[in-house]
Amino acid sequence: MKLTAEQLAKFEEEGYIFLPECFSPEEVEVLRTEAEGIYHSDRKEVWREKSGAPRTAFAAHTYNEAFRILGAHPRLIEPVEQFFGEQLYMHQYKINAKAAFDGEVWQWHQDYGTWARDDGMPDPRAMNISVFIDEVMPINGPLMLIPRSHKHGTLAAGHDKQTTSYPLWTLEHDTVSRLVDEGGIVAPTGKPGSVLMFHGNLVHGSAGNITPYPRKIVYLTLNSVSNYIRKPTRPEWIAHQDFAPIQTVPDDALLDYARSHRLAAE
Ligand code: SIN
Ligand code: MN
Predict the structure, then answer these.
(1) Residue 250 Cα, ligand 1 centroid: separation in angstroms?
(2) Required co-factor (predicted)?
(3) Which residue CA neighbors atom 7 of ligand 1 most closely?
(4) What is the C-alpha separation between 11 and 148, in angstroms, rounded?
(5) Which residues fall within 8 angstroms of residue 266, CB to CB, at 6 or more apart?
(6) From the DSSP assignment, how many helices (H) and strands (E) are in the chain?
(7) Which numeric CATH code is attached to 5-265?
(8) Which of 102, 217, 218, 238 for a ligand 1 pocket mutation test, highest count of atoms within 8 Å of Cβ?
(9) Are 125 and 221 in contact, with CB atoms under 8 Å apart?
(10) pTM of this prediction?
(11) pLDDT truncated to tens, each residue of the chain (266 aa)?
(12) End-to-end distance of the chain based on CA atoms, in angstroms?
């Protein structure tokens, strides 16, 4: 899947693009079932909220076939390759749960701030492209973005290890207020299968989820191969060190997998 000149221009200006319903209900259904199975496992890669509800599952592309296929899917890999003009490897892979009733906040932050400080990534030549696994609504803790904030480079941040179970380099309230005065806040919402691509320096966060509606989103963090991390401090399954370029799968690979999986279950 290639982006149009108009979409690329919007990305440069706003720091994100939202592509509604890129994956079909059949493709997403299998991912939802597999994600729930992963959350029920006791793998070290599954991090939990203080309540015990799942928060995030790392590296599912390395131990789950459906998520392996998604991690090499041309609808996700090609637009990012097109933007950076080179091949990519997987820097990080997360299935964020934002569980019904118990999903907690992600404070305001820039992802590149963490990749630079914790992983030794030289430049912001990496970005997230995410897929909604559940419907993302205004009420179930959608990801909030500050448009145009990516133009401010890497901002000063403090390392928050207390607020949630996930350590994060978070921004001061004054910084966020200043950026919001300029760019406002958007919270893209939509059906499962929708895709959101955003710049590594775009400021984002999300509120807790107190509704009965879970809000699962998969985040692929794709890094340009030339921009591989130089000083990893986090475990390999959080900040990967396999820098081999991703080889894409055929466009119908996830559908094929969903169908064969269903037949096997019948
Ligand atoms: C993130 O910023 O990495 C995740 C935020 C979310 O899933 O709400
Ligand atoms: Mn983030």
Answers:
(1) 28
(2) Fe(2+)
(3) 96
(4) 9
(5) none
(6) 7, 12
(7) 2.60.120.620
(8) 217
(9) no
(10) 0.96
(11) 899 999 999 999 999 999 999 999 999 999 999 999 999 999 999 999 999 999 999 999 999 999 999 999 999 999 999 999 999 999 999 999 999 999 999 999 999 999 999 999 999 999 999 999 999 999 999 999 999 999 999 998 888 887 777 778 899 999 999 999 999 999 999 999 999 999 999 999 999 999 999 999 999 999 999 999 999 999 999 999 999 999 999 999 999 999 998 777 77
(12) 33
Atom of ligand 1 at shortest range from CA of 96: 7
Closest approach atom of ligand 1 to CA 143: 8
Do 47 and 58 contact (CB within 8 A), yes or no? yes
What residue segments make up the domains of the chain, in order of their start? Answer: 5-265
Residues with CB under 6 A from ligand 1: 96, 98, 106, 143, 204, 206, 217, 219
Per this entry, what is the length of the chain?
266
The residue whose CB lies within 8 Å of the most ligand 1 atoms, and thus the one to mutate among 56, 106, 165, 196, is 106
User: Which ligand approaches the C-alpha of residue 142 most closely?
Assistant: 1
